Amino acid sequence: MDLNQENARLRDLLDVKDARIAELEGLVSDRVVSFPQEWDLSQIQSEMLRFLLKRPGKKESLHAALYWDRDDGGPDVRNVPVHVCLLRRKLKPHGIEISWLPDRGYFLSDDMKLKIRRG
Where is each OmpR/PhoB-type domain found (predicted)? Predict the structure, then answer.
């Protein structure tokens, strides 16, 4: 295995571990974030938004956080960008944007996090 392949493998492993940490943080958190009913978010969209409120995540991290409890591993990781697209569509009318950078993945700016928490 060359250095680039090992680096990619380790990054993927780190993304999975980050997702697990986020999932565990959610379990021990004393504050459950709920979203306005008029946003009409699905369960997956709500979980994804809760994840992004805590940390940025690449599609692999989001996938791991969303489907950690499924024996089959959940749907293909390539579905994550579709979920993000649908979530962005629902949040846009409320002035909330999900950003993306190649090295960070999907994330919410501090301003967006504040808007979400205010509902």
Answer: 38-108
40 CB-side CA count, 13 A = 6
Biggest alpha carbon–alpha carbon distance for the chain: 50
Structure tokens that stand for 87 in this block: 């979530």
Nearest to 47 by CA among 30, 31, 33: 33
Classified by CATH at the fold level, domain 3-118 comes out as Arc Repressor Mutant, subunit A (1.10.10)
d(CA 51, CA 39): 17
Measured distance CA(83)–CA(110) in Å, rounded: 22
Strand 99-101 to 105-107 pairing: antiparallel
pLDDT digits (tens, 9 = 90+) for 39-64: 999 999 999 999 999 899 999 999 98
30 pLDDT exceeds 50? no
How far apart, in whole angstroms, are the C-alpha atoms of residue 53 and residue 58? Answer: 14
Residue 106 is given by DSSP the state E
